Amino acid sequence: MRLFSIKRFQSLAVYFLCALAAVSVSAQPPEFNANIIERFDAVDAFQAVAVDADSFYAITNKRLTQHDKNTGRATQQSDENSQLSDALIHLDSGMVFEGKLYSAHSNYPGWPMTSSIEVWDVATMEHIESHSFGVMLGSFTWLDRYNGSWWGAFANYDIVQRGMTEPYGETYNTVIVQFDDDFEVVQSWSLPAEILRRMSPMSNSGGSWGSDGHLYLSGHDDPEIYVMALPETGPELDWLATVRLLGLNGQGIAWDRTIDDNILWAILRSTRQVLKIGMPVLPDIK
User: Fold this and answer.
1) Distance between CA atoms of residues 145 and 86, nearest Å
2) Cα separation of 49 and 69, whole Å?
3) Is residue 155 situated within a structural domain?
4) Fewer CB within a 10 Å sphere, N or C end of the chain?
């Protein structure tokens, strides 16, 4: 009788573990595929790409290069005076708004983490503005404008940097932030644990709002983009879908809002290329 009870307990345990596993698998959001339409060689395609009606802008740590959007020909580069070059450490994702290119910037991998927003006039590629966050919520990695607000992310990392004994902020501390026009924090959200696990030991590198009203996020290395929504309640973003693309390895992304086609721009750091990507039209997912 005792042996039967133990066996029955073991069977029930296995059943519940299998049930939990099935729930976990079924809870994963749907996956879709994207395709690369065109590749452009760009020596500064190291951190991110920004885009406007006529040009794309390849972004590296200290410099931006403007390229003709149709041919990929380099047309202008950002100014590189010594004072600016000394001040810039780690530019990251960028976006163009009203003739200005806004780029997230941090002192990565320095400690404590400090961040700022750096701004260029796209007509002249001259640096014209800077907004400092100082020491805040992590390393500022991306910035976007959507629905009357500024949005961005303060990334943290599980990687232990040279000279440190503790993780660089820990990836689970990464936050997505909504700002007002003065870059004051209005709200912030965390990311689902599974997305953070996939991004670890790095973090969220890119973000851009789509015309469908969803926020698209990229990591640092993986060939996938996460489709997110603001939650009705609670502090964590809702994970709606995943878009996979072989040949992508994360970094900064930018939706092309100047055309009706479903085009996203990204980079492939390993080959110093800017990618023009045809994104899937997602069903009504919530």
Assistant:
1) 28
2) 12
3) yes
4) N
